Amino acid sequence: MSNLKILVGCKRVIDFAVKPRVNSAKKAVETANVKHSLNPFDEIAVEEALRLREKLGNNIVKEIIALTCGPPKAQEQLRTALAMGADKAVHVEVGKDDSEANILQPLSVAKLFRAIIEKEQPNLVILGKQAIDDDASQTGQMLAGLLNWPQATFASKVDINDDKLTVTREVDGGLETISCKLPAIVTTDLRLNEPRFATLPNIMKAKKKPLVKYTPDQLNVDITPRLEIISVTEPPVRKGGTKVESVEELISKLKQAGL
């Protein structure tokens, strides 16, 4: 395999350290004045693309492209990927802010990715197995279906030999190893790697790397939602527990509670 081009997904999400709150409309979580960052699973995807280049060499992995779909501020997450080591960024601009009106559903994202893939012609697409905001875990699988490409999901180890992709994934009974030919879709699990920190010199270099913009209309992709969110509510508040002095008292309390 030569001239390997890797495309990685980079979704903008509320930072994992922030406790999300339901907005006043009860239709989504509050995003105004809330810290956002690169989806942790997508950060692992970027890191794996960089490790593949370090392992296979620059003469094999010719280019790593970071792709995001979202509002103008999503460029921040693309710059993070560029600072980590990606060569180029592509931004499909959707909406002007992070409001619920601009939330993209997995099928829409998969269609936008397909349109970019047709333009960029990558051999390998690496995505996080899920985003920590909607936890859908659908985009990679839908993209593989739209492209009719083989898929290897929830990867904990990735190897490439010639045009053969080998992926180890964790299953209930242990480890499963699968292989397929490129081009292919891979989604990353937590234990695949530990993402690197972007150094200050690389952050400065990232500002000079190319960033290409598109809109869904330019790509001829309909992103009209197919699902409607009726309401979003906070989880019920847990009630405080009580201590019991004996097994008999415990059984009595359980009977009183109807358990």
Automatic annotation (TrEMBL):
Subcellular location: Mitochondrion matrix
Protein name, per record: Probable electron transfer flavoprotein subunit beta
Cofactor annotation: AMP; FAD
A GO molecular-function annotation: electron transfer activity
Species whose genome carries this gene: Glomus cerebriforme
CC per GO annotation: mitochondrial matrix
GO BP annotations, alphabetical order: amino acid catabolic process; fatty acid beta-oxidation using acyl-CoA dehydrogenase
Transmembrane segments annotated in the record for this chain: none
Function: The electron transfer flavoprotein serves as a specific electron acceptor for several dehydrogenases, including five acyl-CoA dehydrogenases, glutaryl-CoA and sarcosine dehydrogenase. It transfers the electrons to the main mitochondrial respiratory chain via ETF-ubiquinone oxidoreductase (ETF dehydrogenase).
Co-factor binding details: Binds 1 AMP per subunit. Binds 1 FAD per dimer.
